[in-house]
Design a protein that fits this description.
Blueprint (H helix, E strand, L loop, with lengths): L1 E7 L21 E7 L6 E3 L6 E3 L6 E3 L6 E3 L6 E3 L6 E3 L6 E4 L5 E3 L8 E4 L4 E2 L6 E4 L5 E3 L6 E3 L6 E3 L6 E3 L6 E3 L6 E3 L6 E3 L6 E3 L6 E3 L12 E3 L9 E3 L16 E6 L2 E5 L6 E5 L11 E2 L1
Parallel strand pairs: 1-2, 2-4, 3-5, 4-6, 5-7, 6-8, 7-9, 8-10, 9-11, 11-13, 12-14, 13-15, 14-16, 15-17, 16-18, 17-19, 18-20, 19-21, 20-22, 21-23, 22-24, 23-27, 24-28
Antiparallel strand pairs: 25-26, 26-27
């Protein structure tokens, strides 16, 4: 037998109403639940099948359990966790937090409706539109932002993060990480480990941390004279390198010509491209460089 049930919370005299679903009898029924919270800060638990759970107003916590659930937080700073199953979740207005365990969950947010965060234990997750923050949980290793200015936070695995448009902040921890900013004025912080950086276009800022880091450039537009990148902690004794080898240094000749470093004065590294614009990179603190070793041409 299949049983459909709906519950509506109430909030009388402005008292906090909290609804908690625990168990049902008899146990041989299949339950499809529709639960509506009240105007307070509700806690709502779904069942084992495909439930519809609505927090409505208030700072709600909604847990789907198993099944392919439909969850809406409504107005307020909500916590939405579909748990098992392929769930559809929408936070609504407010600063909402989503917890997901598989990449094919369906998440939606309206534009300009708060600062919304996703905590994922699913690998290769891409932030949907209108979400701002992405956290990698457990041992998952990779994630991608969207066209907003995102904050992408890693873990101790070897992370690969890719920002898209927007002025992104990407922070990783203990692994040998790859941090790609793409467009925008990005801040990339690799933490410990031998990390690889590419900020893309925009005046980006790099924090390499400990380890032998590779600061990579694929075009002079990655750090032009009028919008140069900033490397805050270049340390040649740790094995840090500035990698200019992907850039063609002579646009007047066929093929890919090796780069020639122009000058390094007062912490400003300049490279000349024949037939094109120059590249300029700032090294904070003007550390000593061996141009034949520390720069990959």
């Amino acid at each position: 037998m299949t049983y459909y049930a709906a519950w509506y919370g109430t909030n009388s005299n402005e008292d906090l109403y909290s609804f908690v679903l625990t168990s049902f009898e008899p146990p041989d029924f299949d339950y499809y639940l529709s639960i509506y919270g009240a105007g307070g800060n509700d806690t709502i638990y779904g069942g084992t099948l495909d439930d519809s759970l609505y927090g409505q107003d208030g700072n709600d916590t909604i847990l789907g359990d198993s099944g392919d659930d439909h969850i809406e937080g409504g107005i307020g700073n909500d916590i939405l966790d579909g748990q098992e199953g392929r769930d559809t979740m929408k936070g609504g207005a407010g600063d909402d937090s989503y917890y997901i365990n598989q990449a094919n969950e369906y998440l939606t947010e309206n534009a300009n409706s708060g600062t919304d965060k996703v905590y994922t234990s699913a690998n290769n997750f891409t932030l949907p539109a209108n979400f701002e923050w992405l956290f990698l949980e457990g041992t998952v290793s990779s994630g991608t932002g969207n066209n907003l200015s995102n904050t992408l936070l890693g873990n101790n695995s070897a992370n690969t993060f890719v920002g898209l448009d927007g002025d992104d902040t990407i922070v990783t921890n203990g692994g040998n990480d790859i941090l790609v900013g793409n467009k925008g004025i990005d801040t990339l912080n690799g933490g410990d480990g031998n990390d690889v950086f590419n900020g893309g276009s925009g005046a980006d800022t790099y924090f390499g941390g400990s380890g032998a880091d590779d600061f990579g450039y694929f075009s002079v537009s990655d750090s032009p004279v009028g919008g140069m990148d900033k490397i805050t902690d270049f340390n040649r004794t740790q094995g840090d390198r500035i990698n200019l080898s992907p850039i063609d240094a002579d646009l007047t000749l066929p093929g890919d010509q090796a780069f020639t470093v122009g000058t390094y004065v007062n912490g400003i590294l300049t490279g000349d491209v024949i037939g094109g614009a120059d590249i300029k990179i700032q090294l904070v603190g003007a550390p000593a460089l061996n141009l034949s070793i520390d720069i990959l041409l």
